[in-house]
Design goal:
Blueprint: E1 2-6, H1 9-26, E2 31-34, H2 41-52, E3 62-65, E4 67-69, H3 80-87, E5 99-100, H4 109-122, E6 128-131, E7 153-156, H5 159-165, E8 178-181, H6 184-189, E9 193-197, H7 203-211, E10 229-234
The structure holds 2-amino-2-deoxy-6-O-phosphono-alpha-D-glucopyranose (GLP).
Length: about 240
């Protein structure tokens, strides 16, 4: 695991965008695994700015998002479909037909998850997977539990995640209680992984991800076993980690 310490959120976002644009420049047909949450928004903004200048070209890229709330339509402003369009896809030259997010509007969880696993496998899994991290160490919506998950599956969100994500809704009651998420095994199939984290409220999770035991109670800790994982985090998120 490579850890890159940045001075602040903007520095984190620029460095992460640099890594992603290098991937796309080196392989224009890259398969990218993408994440939602507030953390990667700055990275997406930076990539959109470079795309507008002609420095990076997404026309041949395909993307696979980690997760989606169950029960929200693609047009719902709280859906991750909507998030990805408004924060990224609408601002770059990607072909929308090449973008994929689990289908939260499909109430048949088994079919929705099976279909998503199939298309991610057919794409050959991401060349680069971008990840944020939840305060409890979740990745995608893989919550702490007794074992690491494998493929795409439905999850019941924990109280702590519902609370943390409620800041993006009008009230906590509106946060969906379930989601479809890529499994931990699928995430580990990516050829490279890039985790972004900022802020003091992530410091415990970042410490456990990088230095704790590899334990499904902190799903992100499995990334220690990945052969090409980079963490780009600001001083506050790394405040509990040793400086060297
Ligand atoms: C959600 C997403 C995760 C994300 C996490 C942290 O639960 N499913 O993919 O990493 O939130 O979000 P934020 O970056 O807003 O702290």
């Amino acid at each position: 695991m490579r850890i890159i310490r940045t001075v602040d959120y903007q520095d984190m976002s620029r460095k992460a965008a640099n890594v992603i644009s290098a991937q796309v420049i080196l392989k224009p047909t890259s398969v990218l695994g993408l994440a939602t949450g507030t953390t990667p928004i700055g990275t997406y903004k930076q990539l959109a700015a470079w795309c507008a200048k002609g420095d990076v070209d997404f026309s041949q890229v395909s993307t696979y998002n980690l997760d989606e709330y169950r029960g929200l339509s693609h047009e719902d402003v709280q859906s991750y479909h909507y998030f990805m369009r408004t924060n990224f896809f609408d601002h770059i030259n990607i072909n929308l037909a090449n973008t994929h997010v689990p289908d939260g509007s499909n109430p048949d969880a088994e079919a929705a998850c099976r279909d998503y696993d199939r298309i991610v496998a057919e794409a050959g899994y991401p060349d680069l997977q971008l990840l944020g991290i939840g305060r409890n160490g979740h990745i995608g919506f893989n919550e702490p539990g007794p074992y690491f998950s494998k493929g795409t599956h439905m999850v019941n969100l924990t109280e702590s995640t519902i609370k943390a994500n409620s800041r993006l809704f009008d009230s906590e009651d509106q946060v969906p209680r379930q989601a479809y998420t890529m499994g931990v095994q699928t995430i580990m199939y990516a050829r490279s992984i890039l985790v972004v984290a900022n802020g003091e409220e992530k410091a415990d999770a970042v410490y456990r991800m990088c230095y704790g035991p590899v334990d499904p109670q902190c799903p992100a800790s499995i990334l220690q076993l990945h052969t090409n994982c980079t963490v780009i985090a600001d001083e506050a998120a790394l405040s509990k980690c040793p400086r060297d």
